Amino acid sequence: MALVTQDRYLALAALVLVVGALVYRRVQQRRKLPLPPGPPSEPLLGHLRVVPADHPEFQYTQWGKEYGSDVLHFSMLGRSIVVLNSVEAARDLLDKRGANFADRPRFVIFEVMGWGITLTFLRWSPRFKLHRKMLQQSFTQTACKAYRPVQVEEARRAAKAIISSPQNWEMLLRQFSTAVVLRIGFGIKIQEKDDPYVKMAIDVEEATGEGGVPAATLVDFYPLLRYLPNPLARLSSLLLPLEHARRTKSSIQQLHNAPWAAVEDSVRSGKNLQASFMNTHFGRYLENEAAGRPNQASIADIKGAAGAISIAGGNTTWSTIMVCILNLLLHPEVQAKAREEILRVIGTDENGDPLRLPTFQDRPALKYLDNVILETTRWMPLSPLGVPHASITEEVYKGYRIPAGSVVYANAWAMSRDERHYSNPDTFDPERYVPTSEGGRGEPLPDGPFGFGRRVCPGQYLALSGVFIIMATLLATMDLKCETDEKGCEVKPKVAFSNGLSAVPESFGCRFEVRSERSRMLLSGM
Ligand code: HEM
Fold it and tell me: pTM for the full model?
Protein backbone atom coordinates (compact mmCIF):
# COMPACT_ATOMS: atom_id res chain seq x y z
CA MET A 1 0.00 0.00 0.00
CA ALA A 2 2.81 2.36 1.06
CA LEU A 3 4.67 1.46 -2.15
CA VAL A 4 1.69 2.34 -4.31
CA THR A 5 1.39 5.76 -2.60
CA GLN A 6 5.14 6.31 -3.06
CA ASP A 7 4.84 5.49 -6.78
CA ARG A 8 2.01 7.95 -7.11
CA TYR A 9 4.11 10.68 -5.50
CA LEU A 10 7.01 9.86 -7.80
CA ALA A 11 4.75 9.96 -10.87
CA LEU A 12 3.29 13.27 -9.76
CA ALA A 13 6.75 14.74 -9.12
CA ALA A 14 7.89 13.56 -12.58
CA LEU A 15 4.82 15.14 -14.16
CA VAL A 16 5.45 18.45 -12.36
CA LEU A 17 9.07 18.35 -13.53
CA VAL A 18 8.12 17.67 -17.15
CA VAL A 19 5.43 20.36 -17.22
CA GLY A 20 7.82 22.78 -15.47
CA ALA A 21 10.53 22.03 -18.02
CA LEU A 22 8.11 22.54 -20.91
CA VAL A 23 6.88 25.85 -19.49
CA TYR A 24 10.48 26.95 -18.86
CA ARG A 25 11.46 26.04 -22.44
CA ARG A 26 8.51 27.90 -23.85
CA VAL A 27 9.29 30.98 -21.76
CA GLN A 28 12.94 30.81 -22.84
CA GLN A 29 11.93 30.40 -26.49
CA ARG A 30 9.62 33.40 -26.21
CA ARG A 31 12.35 35.43 -24.48
CA LYS A 32 14.47 34.80 -27.55
CA LEU A 33 11.79 36.29 -29.75
CA PRO A 34 12.47 39.89 -30.63
CA LEU A 35 10.29 42.79 -29.58
CA PRO A 36 8.62 44.62 -32.47
CA PRO A 37 10.95 47.17 -34.10
CA GLY A 38 11.24 50.81 -33.12
CA PRO A 39 13.74 53.69 -33.11
CA PRO A 40 16.80 53.69 -30.82
CA SER A 41 16.11 54.65 -27.23
CA GLU A 42 18.03 56.47 -24.48
CA PRO A 43 19.48 54.76 -21.41
CA LEU A 44 17.02 54.58 -18.48
CA LEU A 45 14.45 56.92 -19.99
CA GLY A 46 13.92 54.67 -23.01
CA HIS A 47 11.83 56.46 -25.62
CA LEU A 48 10.32 59.00 -23.23
CA ARG A 49 12.08 61.91 -24.96
CA VAL A 50 12.29 60.22 -28.36
CA VAL A 51 8.53 60.13 -28.94
CA PRO A 52 7.25 63.66 -29.58
CA ALA A 53 4.76 64.98 -27.04
CA ASP A 54 2.85 66.80 -29.79
CA HIS A 55 0.84 64.66 -32.21
CA PRO A 56 2.97 61.51 -31.81
CA GLU A 57 0.58 59.74 -34.22
CA PHE A 58 2.37 61.38 -37.18
CA GLN A 59 5.80 60.18 -36.06
CA TYR A 60 4.49 56.71 -35.22
CA THR A 61 3.10 56.51 -38.76
CA GLN A 62 6.47 57.60 -40.17
CA TRP A 63 8.40 55.08 -38.06
CA GLY A 64 6.02 52.34 -39.23
CA LYS A 65 7.14 53.09 -42.81
CA GLU A 66 10.82 53.38 -41.91
CA TYR A 67 10.88 50.07 -40.04
CA GLY A 68 8.55 48.33 -42.51
CA SER A 69 6.27 47.12 -39.71
CA ASP A 70 2.71 47.83 -38.66
CA VAL A 71 3.62 46.84 -35.09
CA LEU A 72 6.13 49.03 -33.26
CA HIS A 73 7.64 48.79 -29.81
CA PHE A 74 8.77 51.53 -27.48
CA SER A 75 9.97 51.42 -23.96
CA MET A 76 9.19 54.22 -21.56
CA LEU A 77 10.86 54.02 -18.16
CA GLY A 78 10.74 50.23 -18.41
CA ARG A 79 7.11 50.01 -19.59
CA SER A 80 6.40 48.49 -23.00
CA ILE A 81 4.40 50.59 -25.42
CA VAL A 82 3.09 48.90 -28.55
CA VAL A 83 1.71 50.90 -31.46
CA LEU A 84 -0.51 49.21 -34.06
CA ASN A 85 -0.38 51.09 -37.35
CA SER A 86 -2.79 49.00 -39.44
CA VAL A 87 -6.40 47.88 -39.23
CA GLU A 88 -5.22 44.30 -39.77
CA ALA A 89 -2.91 44.34 -36.74
CA ALA A 90 -5.59 45.99 -34.58
CA ARG A 91 -8.18 43.43 -35.68
CA ASP A 92 -5.77 40.50 -35.13
CA LEU A 93 -4.84 41.58 -31.63
CA LEU A 94 -7.56 43.81 -30.18
CA ASP A 95 -10.52 41.99 -31.77
CA LYS A 96 -9.48 38.37 -32.31
CA ARG A 97 -7.46 38.16 -29.09
CA GLY A 98 -9.76 40.68 -27.43
CA ALA A 99 -9.88 39.04 -24.00
CA ASN A 100 -6.15 39.64 -23.61
CA PHE A 101 -6.31 43.29 -24.70
CA ALA A 102 -9.42 44.45 -22.88
CA ASP A 103 -7.54 46.08 -20.02
CA ARG A 104 -6.57 49.74 -19.80
CA PRO A 105 -3.37 51.11 -18.35
CA ARG A 106 -3.67 53.33 -15.30
CA PHE A 107 -4.40 56.94 -16.34
CA VAL A 108 -2.80 58.79 -13.45
CA ILE A 109 -3.14 62.23 -15.04
CA PHE A 110 -6.82 61.59 -15.70
CA GLU A 111 -7.22 60.47 -12.07
CA VAL A 112 -5.70 63.79 -10.96
CA MET A 113 -8.17 65.52 -13.27
CA GLY A 114 -10.95 63.98 -11.21
CA TRP A 115 -12.49 61.49 -13.62
CA GLY A 116 -14.77 59.41 -11.42
CA ILE A 117 -15.84 55.85 -12.14
CA THR A 118 -15.95 56.32 -15.91
CA LEU A 119 -16.03 53.28 -18.18
CA THR A 120 -13.42 54.76 -20.53
CA PHE A 121 -10.74 54.58 -17.86
CA LEU A 122 -11.83 51.48 -15.91
CA ARG A 123 -9.34 48.62 -15.69
CA TRP A 124 -10.42 45.09 -16.70
CA SER A 125 -12.48 44.03 -13.69
CA PRO A 126 -16.02 42.98 -12.65
CA ARG A 127 -16.81 46.70 -12.37
CA PHE A 128 -15.70 47.25 -15.98
CA LYS A 129 -18.01 44.42 -17.11
CA LEU A 130 -20.93 45.90 -15.18
CA HIS A 131 -20.46 49.37 -16.70
CA ARG A 132 -19.84 48.00 -20.17
CA LYS A 133 -23.08 45.97 -19.97
CA MET A 134 -25.15 48.91 -18.72
CA LEU A 135 -23.89 51.22 -21.45
CA GLN A 136 -23.66 48.76 -24.32
CA GLN A 137 -27.25 47.60 -23.86
CA SER A 138 -28.52 51.17 -23.88
CA PHE A 139 -26.80 52.13 -27.16
CA THR A 140 -27.14 49.22 -29.55
CA GLN A 141 -28.27 50.10 -33.08
CA THR A 142 -31.82 49.07 -32.13
CA ALA A 143 -31.85 50.85 -28.75
CA CYS A 144 -30.68 54.07 -30.45
CA LYS A 145 -33.90 54.23 -32.49
CA ALA A 146 -35.65 55.30 -29.26
CA TYR A 147 -33.46 58.43 -29.09
CA ARG A 148 -34.26 59.62 -32.61
CA PRO A 149 -37.15 61.93 -31.60
CA VAL A 150 -34.81 63.72 -29.16
CA GLN A 151 -32.11 64.05 -31.83
CA VAL A 152 -34.56 65.37 -34.45
CA GLU A 153 -36.07 67.86 -32.01
CA GLU A 154 -32.69 69.14 -30.84
CA ALA A 155 -31.31 69.33 -34.40
CA ARG A 156 -34.25 71.47 -35.51
CA ARG A 157 -34.02 73.61 -32.38
CA ALA A 158 -30.32 74.21 -33.10
CA ALA A 159 -30.90 74.99 -36.80
CA LYS A 160 -33.68 77.45 -35.94
CA ALA A 161 -31.43 79.16 -33.38
CA ILE A 162 -28.59 79.36 -35.93
CA ILE A 163 -30.90 81.14 -38.39
CA SER A 164 -31.72 83.80 -35.81
CA SER A 165 -28.21 84.06 -34.45
CA PRO A 166 -25.78 82.84 -37.12
CA GLN A 167 -22.72 84.35 -35.43
CA ASN A 168 -23.27 81.93 -32.52
CA TRP A 169 -23.31 78.83 -34.72
CA GLU A 170 -20.39 77.14 -33.03
CA MET A 171 -21.91 77.51 -29.56
CA LEU A 172 -25.34 76.43 -30.81
CA LEU A 173 -23.90 73.25 -32.25
CA ARG A 174 -22.21 72.54 -28.95
CA GLN A 175 -25.58 73.12 -27.38
CA PHE A 176 -27.07 70.53 -29.75
CA SER A 177 -24.58 67.79 -28.83
CA THR A 178 -24.71 68.59 -25.12
CA ALA A 179 -28.53 68.70 -25.16
CA VAL A 180 -28.83 65.24 -26.75
CA VAL A 181 -26.55 63.46 -24.26
CA LEU A 182 -27.96 65.28 -21.23
CA ARG A 183 -31.51 64.37 -22.21
CA ILE A 184 -30.61 60.74 -22.87
CA GLY A 185 -28.35 60.43 -19.82
CA PHE A 186 -30.27 62.45 -17.27
CA GLY A 187 -33.53 63.69 -18.80
CA ILE A 188 -32.27 67.28 -18.47
CA LYS A 189 -33.44 69.84 -21.04
CA ILE A 190 -30.94 72.60 -21.48
CA GLN A 191 -31.68 76.32 -21.65
CA GLU A 192 -31.89 78.22 -24.95
CA LYS A 193 -29.19 80.66 -23.81
CA ASP A 194 -26.09 80.55 -21.63
CA ASP A 195 -26.78 77.08 -20.38
CA PRO A 196 -24.40 76.15 -17.52
CA TYR A 197 -23.99 72.57 -18.79
CA VAL A 198 -22.75 73.80 -22.16
CA LYS A 199 -20.14 75.88 -20.35
CA MET A 200 -19.16 72.78 -18.33
CA ALA A 201 -18.84 70.74 -21.54
CA ILE A 202 -16.49 73.36 -23.02
CA ASP A 203 -14.32 73.32 -19.89
CA VAL A 204 -14.13 69.53 -19.96
CA GLU A 205 -13.17 69.54 -23.61
CA GLU A 206 -10.34 71.98 -22.92
CA ALA A 207 -9.21 69.77 -20.05
CA THR A 208 -9.09 66.54 -22.06
CA GLY A 209 -8.19 68.09 -25.40
CA GLU A 210 -5.03 69.61 -23.94
CA GLY A 211 -4.20 66.91 -21.40
CA GLY A 212 -1.49 65.20 -23.45
CA VAL A 213 -1.52 61.71 -24.90
CA PRO A 214 -3.42 59.51 -22.42
CA ALA A 215 -1.30 57.22 -20.24
CA ALA A 216 1.91 58.52 -21.79
CA THR A 217 3.08 61.29 -19.48
CA LEU A 218 5.88 60.99 -16.92
CA VAL A 219 3.29 61.02 -14.11
CA ASP A 220 1.49 58.06 -15.70
CA PHE A 221 4.71 56.08 -15.49
CA TYR A 222 5.65 57.27 -11.97
CA PRO A 223 2.34 57.73 -10.14
CA LEU A 224 4.06 59.07 -7.01
CA LEU A 225 4.95 62.20 -8.98
CA ARG A 226 1.29 63.20 -8.77
CA TYR A 227 2.02 64.52 -5.26
CA LEU A 228 4.74 66.91 -6.48
CA PRO A 229 3.85 70.54 -5.66
CA ASN A 230 3.19 72.81 -8.64
CA PRO A 231 6.36 74.95 -8.28
CA LEU A 232 8.47 71.77 -8.63
CA ALA A 233 6.30 70.37 -11.42
CA ARG A 234 6.92 73.58 -13.37
CA LEU A 235 10.63 72.82 -13.50
CA SER A 236 10.24 70.21 -16.26
CA SER A 237 8.13 70.35 -19.40
CA LEU A 238 7.57 66.60 -18.91
CA LEU A 239 5.53 67.47 -15.81
CA LEU A 240 3.38 70.20 -17.34
CA PRO A 241 0.33 67.88 -17.71
CA LEU A 242 0.25 67.59 -13.88
CA GLU A 243 -0.41 71.28 -13.35
CA HIS A 244 -2.92 71.26 -16.20
CA ALA A 245 -4.75 68.32 -14.59
CA ARG A 246 -4.94 70.09 -11.23
CA ARG A 247 -6.17 73.30 -12.82
CA THR A 248 -8.97 71.57 -14.74
CA LYS A 249 -10.07 69.15 -12.02
CA SER A 250 -13.06 71.18 -10.87
CA SER A 251 -14.57 71.32 -14.37
CA ILE A 252 -14.52 67.56 -14.70
CA GLN A 253 -15.96 66.97 -11.27
CA GLN A 254 -18.68 69.50 -11.98
CA LEU A 255 -19.82 67.73 -15.15
CA HIS A 256 -19.88 64.48 -13.17
CA ASN A 257 -21.83 65.84 -10.23
CA ALA A 258 -24.10 68.67 -11.41
CA PRO A 259 -26.52 66.76 -13.70
CA TRP A 260 -26.95 63.99 -11.15
CA ALA A 261 -27.62 66.45 -8.34
CA ALA A 262 -30.17 68.29 -10.50
CA VAL A 263 -32.26 65.16 -11.09
CA GLU A 264 -31.73 63.06 -7.96
CA ASP A 265 -34.72 64.43 -6.05
CA SER A 266 -37.16 63.87 -8.94
CA VAL A 267 -36.09 60.26 -9.31
CA ARG A 268 -36.34 59.69 -5.57
CA SER A 269 -39.77 61.32 -5.34
CA GLY A 270 -41.03 60.06 -8.70
CA LYS A 271 -42.23 63.60 -9.57
CA ASN A 272 -41.47 65.53 -12.81
CA LEU A 273 -39.69 62.54 -14.22
CA GLN A 274 -38.25 62.43 -17.75
CA ALA A 275 -37.22 59.15 -19.39
CA SER A 276 -33.44 58.79 -19.17
CA PHE A 277 -30.60 56.37 -18.47
CA MET A 278 -30.39 57.73 -14.91
CA ASN A 279 -34.10 57.35 -14.34
CA THR A 280 -34.11 53.74 -15.59
CA HIS A 281 -31.10 52.60 -13.58
CA PHE A 282 -31.39 54.73 -10.46
CA GLY A 283 -35.17 54.16 -10.38
CA ARG A 284 -34.58 50.40 -10.52
CA TYR A 285 -31.96 50.74 -7.79
CA LEU A 286 -34.44 52.53 -5.49
CA GLU A 287 -37.16 49.97 -6.21
CA ASN A 288 -34.83 47.11 -5.32
CA GLU A 289 -33.71 48.90 -2.19
CA ALA A 290 -37.31 49.46 -1.07
CA ALA A 291 -38.16 45.79 -1.71
CA GLY A 292 -35.04 44.58 0.11
CA ARG A 293 -33.61 43.10 -3.11
CA PRO A 294 -29.85 43.30 -3.74
CA ASN A 295 -28.52 45.78 -6.30
CA GLN A 296 -25.73 44.82 -8.65
CA ALA A 297 -24.74 48.42 -9.38
CA SER A 298 -24.09 50.90 -6.58
CA ILE A 299 -25.22 54.55 -6.77
CA ALA A 300 -21.61 55.48 -7.60
CA ASP A 301 -21.69 53.02 -10.51
CA ILE A 302 -24.92 54.43 -11.94
CA LYS A 303 -23.67 57.97 -11.49
CA GLY A 304 -20.40 57.10 -13.25
CA ALA A 305 -22.15 55.36 -16.15
CA ALA A 306 -24.66 58.18 -16.66
CA GLY A 307 -21.79 60.66 -16.48
CA ALA A 308 -19.89 58.67 -19.12
CA ILE A 309 -22.73 59.30 -21.59
CA SER A 310 -22.59 63.05 -21.26
CA ILE A 311 -18.82 63.28 -20.89
CA ALA A 312 -17.80 60.81 -23.59
CA GLY A 313 -20.69 61.64 -25.90
CA GLY A 314 -21.11 65.42 -26.07
CA ASN A 315 -17.81 66.93 -27.12
CA THR A 316 -16.96 63.98 -29.35
CA THR A 317 -20.14 64.44 -31.39
CA TRP A 318 -19.67 68.22 -31.51
CA SER A 319 -16.09 67.88 -32.68
CA THR A 320 -17.13 65.50 -35.48
CA ILE A 321 -19.81 67.97 -36.62
CA MET A 322 -17.16 70.72 -36.67
CA VAL A 323 -14.77 68.62 -38.79
CA CYS A 324 -17.62 67.85 -41.18
CA ILE A 325 -18.47 71.57 -41.54
CA LEU A 326 -14.79 72.40 -41.99
CA ASN A 327 -14.66 70.06 -44.97
CA LEU A 328 -17.92 71.33 -46.45
CA LEU A 329 -16.33 74.80 -46.48
CA LEU A 330 -13.08 73.55 -47.97
CA HIS A 331 -14.96 71.51 -50.61
CA PRO A 332 -18.03 73.43 -51.84
CA GLU A 333 -18.63 70.75 -54.48
CA VAL A 334 -19.11 68.15 -51.73
CA GLN A 335 -21.53 70.47 -49.96
CA ALA A 336 -23.52 71.05 -53.16
CA LYS A 337 -23.71 67.34 -53.90
CA ALA A 338 -24.84 66.44 -50.37
CA ARG A 339 -27.54 69.13 -50.50
CA GLU A 340 -28.73 68.03 -53.95
CA GLU A 341 -29.18 64.50 -52.64
CA ILE A 342 -31.12 65.67 -49.57
CA LEU A 343 -33.43 67.92 -51.60
CA ARG A 344 -34.05 65.13 -54.11
CA VAL A 345 -35.08 62.79 -51.31
CA ILE A 346 -37.26 65.17 -49.27
CA GLY A 347 -38.76 66.77 -52.39
CA THR A 348 -38.86 70.41 -53.50
CA ASP A 349 -41.52 72.87 -54.65
CA GLU A 350 -41.47 74.80 -57.95
CA ASN A 351 -38.84 77.18 -56.51
CA GLY A 352 -36.55 74.35 -55.54
CA ASP A 353 -37.32 74.83 -51.83
CA PRO A 354 -37.68 71.83 -49.51
CA LEU A 355 -41.19 70.48 -48.99
CA ARG A 356 -40.31 69.25 -45.50
CA LEU A 357 -37.38 68.75 -43.14
CA PRO A 358 -35.24 65.59 -43.28
CA THR A 359 -35.93 62.73 -40.85
CA PHE A 360 -34.29 59.42 -40.00
CA GLN A 361 -36.63 57.67 -42.46
CA ASP A 362 -34.66 59.41 -45.23
CA ARG A 363 -31.32 58.02 -44.11
CA PRO A 364 -31.27 54.84 -46.23
CA ALA A 365 -31.65 57.04 -49.34
CA LEU A 366 -28.97 59.54 -48.26
CA LYS A 367 -25.93 57.44 -49.12
CA TYR A 368 -23.75 60.35 -50.16
CA LEU A 369 -24.35 62.21 -46.89
CA ASP A 370 -23.55 59.05 -44.93
CA ASN A 371 -20.31 58.78 -46.90
CA VAL A 372 -19.49 62.44 -46.13
CA ILE A 373 -19.88 61.64 -42.42
CA LEU A 374 -17.80 58.46 -42.65
CA GLU A 375 -15.13 60.34 -44.57
CA THR A 376 -15.14 62.95 -41.79
CA THR A 377 -14.30 60.25 -39.23
CA ARG A 378 -11.55 58.86 -41.47
CA TRP A 379 -10.00 62.14 -42.59
CA MET A 380 -9.45 63.25 -38.97
CA PRO A 381 -10.03 60.45 -36.46
CA LEU A 382 -11.27 62.13 -33.29
CA SER A 383 -8.88 60.12 -31.11
CA PRO A 384 -5.89 59.76 -33.42
CA LEU A 385 -4.24 57.22 -31.14
CA GLY A 386 -7.46 55.90 -29.65
CA VAL A 387 -7.73 55.31 -25.94
CA PRO A 388 -4.93 52.88 -25.11
CA HIS A 389 -5.69 49.27 -24.25
CA ALA A 390 -3.35 47.17 -22.09
CA SER A 391 -2.37 43.53 -22.58
CA ILE A 392 -2.97 41.09 -19.74
CA THR A 393 -0.57 38.26 -20.62
CA GLU A 394 2.35 37.98 -23.04
CA GLU A 395 1.47 37.49 -26.72
CA VAL A 396 3.40 36.50 -29.81
CA TYR A 397 2.42 38.26 -33.03
CA LYS A 398 4.13 38.05 -36.42
CA GLY A 399 7.15 36.51 -34.67
CA TYR A 400 7.41 39.40 -32.21
CA ARG A 401 6.95 39.23 -28.46
CA ILE A 402 4.41 41.59 -26.94
CA PRO A 403 5.12 41.67 -23.22
CA ALA A 404 2.35 41.34 -20.62
CA GLY A 405 1.13 44.72 -19.38
CA SER A 406 2.06 46.57 -22.59
CA VAL A 407 0.20 49.80 -23.27
CA VAL A 408 -1.29 49.34 -26.74
CA TYR A 409 -2.22 52.24 -29.00
CA ALA A 410 -4.33 51.61 -32.10
CA ASN A 411 -3.01 54.39 -34.34
CA ALA A 412 -6.25 55.39 -36.09
CA TRP A 413 -4.36 58.17 -37.86
CA ALA A 414 -1.96 55.69 -39.53
CA MET A 415 -4.92 53.46 -40.46
CA SER A 416 -6.70 56.39 -42.07
CA ARG A 417 -3.61 57.17 -44.17
CA ASP A 418 -2.90 53.57 -45.22
CA GLU A 419 -2.16 53.80 -48.93
CA ARG A 420 -2.84 50.11 -49.43
CA HIS A 421 -6.51 50.90 -48.77
CA TYR A 422 -6.99 54.60 -49.51
CA SER A 423 -5.97 56.44 -52.65
CA ASN A 424 -4.76 60.00 -51.91
CA PRO A 425 -5.51 59.47 -48.23
CA ASP A 426 -5.04 63.14 -47.27
CA THR A 427 -7.83 64.16 -49.64
CA PHE A 428 -11.35 64.47 -48.27
CA ASP A 429 -13.24 62.36 -50.77
CA PRO A 430 -16.60 60.77 -49.86
CA GLU A 431 -16.72 59.10 -53.31
CA ARG A 432 -13.97 56.70 -52.30
CA TYR A 433 -16.54 54.42 -50.62
CA VAL A 434 -18.81 54.02 -53.67
CA PRO A 435 -18.86 50.23 -54.30
CA THR A 436 -17.12 48.85 -57.37
CA SER A 437 -20.48 47.35 -58.41
CA GLU A 438 -21.68 50.97 -58.85
CA GLY A 439 -18.56 52.00 -60.75
CA GLY A 440 -16.75 53.36 -57.69
CA ARG A 441 -13.43 52.51 -56.05
CA GLY A 442 -15.00 50.53 -53.19
CA GLU A 443 -12.41 51.62 -50.64
CA PRO A 444 -13.04 50.15 -47.17
CA LEU A 445 -15.26 52.04 -44.74
CA PRO A 446 -13.14 53.58 -41.99
CA ASP A 447 -12.21 51.17 -39.27
CA GLY A 448 -10.52 52.62 -36.22
CA PRO A 449 -12.15 55.97 -35.39
CA PHE A 450 -14.35 54.24 -32.80
CA GLY A 451 -11.68 51.87 -31.51
CA PHE A 452 -11.55 48.10 -31.34
CA GLY A 453 -12.38 44.90 -29.51
CA ARG A 454 -14.01 44.82 -26.11
CA ARG A 455 -13.44 48.53 -25.59
CA VAL A 456 -14.92 49.71 -28.90
CA CYS A 457 -16.97 52.89 -28.46
CA PRO A 458 -20.45 51.89 -27.22
CA GLY A 459 -21.84 55.26 -28.36
CA GLN A 460 -20.89 55.02 -32.04
CA TYR A 461 -24.43 54.54 -33.39
CA LEU A 462 -25.79 57.37 -31.30
CA ALA A 463 -22.93 59.62 -32.37
CA LEU A 464 -23.24 58.92 -36.09
CA SER A 465 -27.01 59.36 -36.08
CA GLY A 466 -26.63 62.69 -34.24
CA VAL A 467 -24.13 63.93 -36.82
CA PHE A 468 -26.42 62.68 -39.61
CA ILE A 469 -29.57 64.48 -38.46
CA ILE A 470 -27.91 67.80 -37.69
CA MET A 471 -25.98 67.86 -40.98
CA ALA A 472 -29.08 66.85 -43.01
CA THR A 473 -31.13 69.59 -41.31
CA LEU A 474 -28.48 72.28 -41.81
CA LEU A 475 -27.79 71.37 -45.43
CA ALA A 476 -31.48 71.22 -46.35
CA THR A 477 -32.16 74.71 -45.04
CA MET A 478 -28.89 76.67 -45.14
CA ASP A 479 -25.84 77.47 -47.24
CA LEU A 480 -22.58 77.12 -45.38
CA LYS A 481 -20.06 79.65 -46.63
CA CYS A 482 -16.52 80.75 -45.82
CA GLU A 483 -16.13 84.09 -44.10
CA THR A 484 -14.95 86.97 -46.26
CA ASP A 485 -12.24 89.57 -45.61
CA GLU A 486 -12.62 93.34 -45.99
CA LYS A 487 -12.13 93.01 -49.78
CA GLY A 488 -14.93 90.45 -49.98
CA CYS A 489 -12.54 87.56 -50.69
CA GLU A 490 -13.29 84.23 -49.09
CA VAL A 491 -11.12 83.26 -46.12
CA LYS A 492 -10.56 79.51 -46.17
CA PRO A 493 -10.64 78.03 -42.67
CA LYS A 494 -7.36 77.04 -41.08
CA VAL A 495 -6.89 73.32 -40.59
CA ALA A 496 -5.38 72.75 -37.14
CA PHE A 497 -6.21 70.37 -34.32
CA SER A 498 -5.55 70.13 -30.59
CA ASN A 499 -3.21 67.52 -29.19
CA GLY A 500 -4.34 64.90 -26.69
CA LEU A 501 -7.13 62.42 -26.11
CA SER A 502 -9.29 64.11 -28.72
CA ALA A 503 -8.24 66.13 -31.74
CA VAL A 504 -10.52 69.17 -31.64
CA PRO A 505 -10.42 71.55 -34.61
CA GLU A 506 -9.22 75.08 -33.98
CA SER A 507 -12.04 77.63 -34.20
CA PHE A 508 -12.87 78.77 -37.72
CA GLY A 509 -15.39 81.10 -39.28
CA CYS A 510 -18.50 79.98 -41.18
CA ARG A 511 -21.45 81.99 -42.52
CA PHE A 512 -24.77 80.19 -42.26
CA GLU A 513 -27.27 81.67 -44.72
CA VAL A 514 -30.85 80.49 -44.71
CA ARG A 515 -31.67 79.34 -48.25
CA SER A 516 -35.25 80.55 -48.50
CA GLU A 517 -38.26 81.88 -46.63
CA ARG A 518 -39.74 78.41 -46.88
CA SER A 519 -36.72 76.91 -45.07
CA ARG A 520 -37.11 79.52 -42.33
CA MET A 521 -40.81 78.72 -42.11
CA LEU A 522 -40.21 74.98 -41.89
CA LEU A 523 -37.84 75.48 -38.97
CA SER A 524 -39.93 78.08 -37.19
CA GLY A 525 -42.94 75.76 -37.37
CA MET A 526 -41.38 73.53 -34.82
C1 HEM B 1 -18.20 60.79 -33.11
C2 HEM B 1 -18.24 60.63 -31.81
C3 HEM B 1 -17.41 59.63 -31.05
C4 HEM B 1 -16.17 59.13 -31.31
C5 HEM B 1 -15.28 59.44 -32.52
C6 HEM B 1 -15.83 58.21 -30.24
C7 HEM B 1 -14.63 57.48 -30.18
C8 HEM B 1 -14.31 56.63 -29.15
C9 HEM B 1 -13.07 55.88 -29.07
C10 HEM B 1 -11.93 55.93 -30.08
C11 HEM B 1 -13.11 55.15 -27.94
C12 HEM B 1 -12.03 54.20 -27.42
C13 HEM B 1 -12.26 52.82 -28.00
C14 HEM B 1 -11.18 51.81 -27.65
O15 HEM B 1 -10.61 51.89 -26.58
O16 HEM B 1 -10.87 50.94 -28.48
C17 HEM B 1 -14.37 55.42 -27.29
C18 HEM B 1 -14.77 54.86 -26.10
C19 HEM B 1 -15.95 55.21 -25.47
N20 HEM B 1 -16.97 55.99 -25.96
FE21 HEM B 1 -16.99 56.97 -27.71
N22 HEM B 1 -16.86 58.16 -29.36
C23 HEM B 1 -17.85 59.00 -29.81
C24 HEM B 1 -19.09 59.21 -29.22
C25 HEM B 1 -19.54 58.63 -28.09
C26 HEM B 1 -20.88 58.78 -27.54
C27 HEM B 1 -22.03 59.57 -28.15
C28 HEM B 1 -20.90 58.10 -26.36
C29 HEM B 1 -22.06 58.00 -25.39
C30 HEM B 1 -22.94 57.11 -25.38
C31 HEM B 1 -19.58 57.48 -26.18
C32 HEM B 1 -19.19 56.70 -25.11
C33 HEM B 1 -17.96 56.05 -25.01
C34 HEM B 1 -17.57 55.27 -23.84
C35 HEM B 1 -18.37 55.09 -22.57
C36 HEM B 1 -16.29 54.73 -24.14
C37 HEM B 1 -15.44 53.83 -23.26
C38 HEM B 1 -15.59 52.37 -23.67
C39 HEM B 1 -14.72 51.42 -22.86
O40 HEM B 1 -13.68 51.82 -22.37
O41 HEM B 1 -15.09 50.23 -22.75
N42 HEM B 1 -18.80 57.82 -27.26
N43 HEM B 1 -15.10 56.32 -28.06
Answer: 0.90
